């Protein structure tokens, strides 16, 4: 690029140089940000015949070119040279560039110090329809299922924060990448982590089995199954289970049955290659037995014991033992009545609407019908009530064929029937949305993880 100086400009520059000479030596040097030039010599030589004047003109042209080049570089690459001396000289920021500034967001911090659900539970030890589920993704708001008071899923997401700073562009991108890696590690599986293949849909060598009804002590089987983890939890060691199942067993005063049940169920379930946990839910106090309400408690408490929660729930009487391993303890698309064929009932189905004994429901199915009713104190009615709930929500009952859905029943004393069961059943279709998980109240007495089962003790008495 060539800089052309006209004759008029030369005369003007010569006049300025004379003024500078008369002003004295202190004003001779004009500092141009890059270097200082003695303008008296340069300008006096402009238009002169001497070699010094030509050199001065060329120096001036070079300086102008250098300034223009720096301006072009700054214009084109300013986002990269964010802290260049040229920008520092020309640009004065409106805020302190050493501190990050948050733009266009609320003042609410992105991560709450305590989750509201957990904080509330710690303040109130009494469990009143409050649960703390582990299937949590990350969001600052808690979404609650409208049909129940219990918060079934707590979704949490970090707020997006736009940060403006003086850090160079490339370094900023690298730091953001490191931050994303750190914050997501632990929330999702590592990409390079080896995964086991899925277990077979129908595990091999399944078939009919026998039952040992001989009474045994819990201490005799406490260490019998080392592959079972504490709390009665098991997962297949060589494949990834297709089903994650919580076995919910309502219980009171059946210690002679408990050891027989555990001794039979653990090898039966392990053979099916499912991931499972056994939860014995005991009713505290002296009021009439309420099987259905205990199963609601078991559902709520079992979800707290597993990260991500269980997908399938088998509600199981303690005196029923399966006789065929092909009776898979999983949850299909429709609710399944498992114990269709019982030895003491001559392996016949008593009536088509029965849903008692052993039944299987998914998380979605169980919450959609609001769980079991809490009002059935004493024997009978609660399983038929569940049938009507499922029918009202357009589900139908699935069953295995009678040669597979076979169970042996342990001897036990029959309980007194609930005299109000027929009256309650007549109101199910109108009241089920207001009676169940949404109105469940109980006092959690204790949760103990034994080797072969998790023992949940709850007081479910109604509060006046």
UniProtKB/TrEMBL annotation:
CDD domains: b4GalT (cd00899). Pfam families: Glyco_transf_7C, Glyco_transf_7N. This is Beta-1,4-N-acetylgalactosaminyltransferase. The lineage of its organism: Eukaryota, Metazoa, Ecdysozoa, Arthropoda, Hexapoda. It comes from Papilio xuthus. The keyword Disulfide bond does not apply. Its cofactor is Mn(2+). It is found in: Membrane. The chain crosses the membrane at residues 62-81.
